[in-house]
Amino acid sequence: MVPGAVATAAVAVSTALALTVLTAPAAHADDGKGGKGNDGFSIKDPRITESSGLVASRAHPGVYWTHNDQDKGAFLYAVDSATGKTVATVTMTGVGKPRDIEAISMGPDGDLYVGDIGDNLGGKWSFVWIYKLPEPKQLKDQSIRAKQYVVKYSDGPRDAESMMVHPKTGRVYIVDKKEDGEGSLYQGPPPARMSTSRTNVFQRVADVDLWATDGAFSPNGKQLALRGYLGGVTYRWEGDGKIKREGRLSVPLQRQGESLTYSPDGSRLMFGTEGQESDVEARDAEGAGAPGGSSSDGGGGDGDGDDGSGGGYKSGILVVAAVVLAFFGLKRVFRKG
Fold first, then answer.
1. Where are the coiled-coil regions (predicted)?
2. What angle is formed at CA 313 by the lines to CA 18 and CA 16, rounded to 5 degrees?
3. Residue 188 bridge partners (DSSP)
4. Phi–psi pair at 197, nearest 5 degrees
5. What pTM, to 2 d.p., does this model score?
């Protein structure tokens, strides 16, 4: 990007962010919803500037695991949601140098799954990787050896930022990232057939109508939630890769929203973003994924509307939000190219 364009974009971004502050509703902070890890927080660690994935710890209540999409090593960070401080840094060994880590999820076996699945050039990599490692029992800086799985898609290479492990079956799923909103859900082999010695082919199983930047299964396994930069969708999980659109998510406007997970009890959806001291914002989870599996509309409206960010401020920020996304999207492509 030429200097003049950078200056122009910077002014536009500043204006957009100022308007956002004036128009966006307040985020959830400590609102007394109960349960550790149910409230929003800010990530304080100066090393975490590109938080692209988020998952609630199973072994350590109130702790969330995150990672940068580009880092100096194969690092995972355990962040205490009560303070926003990093309480452990895990170095994955046995995986080589990651390329573009975009997602993290928790399996029913208590293992962490890490998706090195990003491809900003839309098909440069003929394969991507998934790493699997046990969640540490003690929160301290340590190295843990991970298993590495080579992954290909049945219909060719693609960019993706959303990887989810079903909490009941342990099967791994990936949603690709399509700017036109015509994405796809891919299903991995059954857990017993995932191999570290041969390529694991993920099959396309469903359409996804969203430019997805992350996704998560509810703890009860009945709902798949996907987010984009300005909107989100919930799907009722019908098993074996079959989904039925349930409703829209009211996604908070964030600088570069690229992470989503459920709180440990499934009552909240946690939305994260890239950036220094980035905020993780909490929203109530509704629909099949909420505790009790109610049949409400998924937190943002019925299943027939567009996937906007919800709320009365939506129409006033779409243009400025587009400017922000264009700027940071170009900046990211230039950085990773």
1. none
2. 25
3. none
4. -110, -5
5. 0.82
Secondary structure of residue 310 in the 3-state scheme: coil
Q: Phi, psi (5° rounding) for residue 326?
A: -60, -45
Separation of alpha carbons 228 and 230, rounded Å: 6
Q: Provide the token pair at 328.
A: 């940071």
Average pLDDT over every residue of 123-140: 95
pLDDT value, residue 34: 60
Backbone angles phi, psi at 192, to 5 degrees: -70, -15
Strands 200-208 and 147-153, how do they pair?
Answer: parallel
**All domains of the chain, ordered by start, with CATH?**
26-310 (2.120.10.30)
Gap between the Cα atoms of 98 and 128, Å rounded: 10
Is a pLDDT exceeding 80 seen at residue 229?
Answer: yes
For residue 209, what are the contacts with CB-CB under 8 A and spacing of at least 6? 181, 182, 183, 233, 245, 307
User: What is the model's pLDDT at position 22?
Assistant: 35
pLDDT classification of 306: cutoffs 50, 70, 90: very low
Tell me the C-alpha distance between 126 and 91, whole Å.
26
Identify the burial level of 137 via C-beta atoms within 10 angstroms of its C-beta, where 0-12 means exposed, 13-18 middle and 19 or more buried: exposed
Angle (nearest 5°) at CA 161 between 305 and 227: 25
Helix (H, G, I), strand (E, B) or coil at 132: strand
What span, in angstroms and rounded, lies between the C-alpha atoms of 152 and 200? 6
3-state SS of 217-269 is: ECCCCCEEEEECCCCEEEEEECCCCCEEEEEEECCCCCCCEEEEEECCCCCEE
- Whole-number Å distance between alpha carbons of 320 and 313: 12
Q: What confidence score (pLDDT) does residue 321 get?
A: 46
Distance, CA of 175 to CA of 183 (rounded, Å)? 7
